[in-house]
Amino acid sequence: MLNTPHTAPVAGPCHIAIIMDGNGRWAQARGRPRLFGHHAGARRVREVVEACPSLGVKYLTVFAFSTENWKRTQVEVAGLMSLFRRYIIKETRTLKDNGIRVRFIGDRVRLDAKLTGLMDTLEKETRENDLVHLTIALNYGGRDEVARATKRLARDVADGHLHPDDVDEETLPKYLDTHVLPDPDLVIRTSGEARISNFLLWQSAYSEYEFIDTLWPDFTAAELERLCRSFGARDRRFGAVSA
Ligand code: FPP
């Protein structure tokens, strides 16, 4: 059957990256501590991951903790670290059994050994999976990632493995934490803030952006579907002109 224009399937985003913002305000509006909002936010991650296959989303990257988030109170930071540990322990089997491959990006050096051990195990347990690639950015900052990548690249130059003349736009991303991932097609930020807060700076050079008012714990699969459809209607030219 031929597709008529109004029924033609839209080409949705293959890789969606999300800045999950608004957990604190969501909790505050209910008179509850900020961590209550983070726990509600963690439950939303599951709903969004589950929605990905039917929307044709192969890669999902979520910003769970930034290199700047250490500036929060000790109670909130400790609570988030404990939430990440519990999340991994609780979700490993489900993720493994449902075809989700999990990766972490960010600097692990400042994370405690118990958490990094769990992260390693989850990555290992799910490495055969290919239905959806879920990447969790934990102690991640775009500038920090580029600095760490540059350090590794400089080491390769110093060791004679790489010639300075061969450093170009194709070479540098091979040193980034995201080297095995495609660039995000669509970056979503919830909670009404219109900034990118050091997230995927290199990778999002040509991404489409959606800044939406919904607080992250209220974000639904239906809203994700709406954003995917709206993405499909966009004209992405990557610096060229339309055909
Ligand atoms: C930003 O909201 C949110 C965070 C810094 C933490 C994000 C963490 C989660 C959604 C839960 C865990 C995720 C996984 C993958 C287990 P905010 O605290 O800045 O909210 P506010 O702007 O309203 O204060």
Structure description:
The structure is a single chain. With 243 residues, the chain is of the alpha/beta class. The chain has helices spanning 23-28, 34-55, 74-97, 113-125, 142-158, 221-232; strands spanning 15-19, 59-66, 100-105, 132-140, 186-189, 208-211. The two termini are 26 Å apart. Mean pLDDT is 94; it is low at 1-9. Farnesyl diphosphate (FPP) is lined by residues 20-25, 34, 38, 41-42, 45, 62, 64, 69, 83-84, 87, 136, 191, 216.
Q: In summary, what is this structure?
A:
39% of the residues lie in helices and 15% in strands. It has 243 residues and is an alpha/beta fold. The structure holds farnesyl diphosphate.
Characteristics of this structure?
6-stranded parallel sheet, alpha/beta, binds farnesyl diphosphate
Topology of helices and strands:
Elements: E1 15-19, H1 23-28, H2 34-55, E2 59-66, H3 74-97, E3 100-105, H4 113-125, E4 132-140, H5 142-158, E5 186-189, E6 208-211, H6 221-232
Parallel strand pairs: 1-2, 1-5, 2-4, 3-4, 5-6
The structure holds farnesyl diphosphate (FPP).
Farnesyl diphosphate (FPP) binds next to α1, α2, β2 and α3.
What spatial order of strands do you see in the largest sheet?
3-4-2-1-5-6
Oligomer: single chain
Number of strands: 6
Low-pLDDT runs: 1-9
> How many H/I helical runs?
6
Helix coverage percent: 25-40%
Question: Given the C-alpha coordinates, what overall shape results?
Answer: globular
In angstroms, what separates the terminal alpha carbons? 26 Å
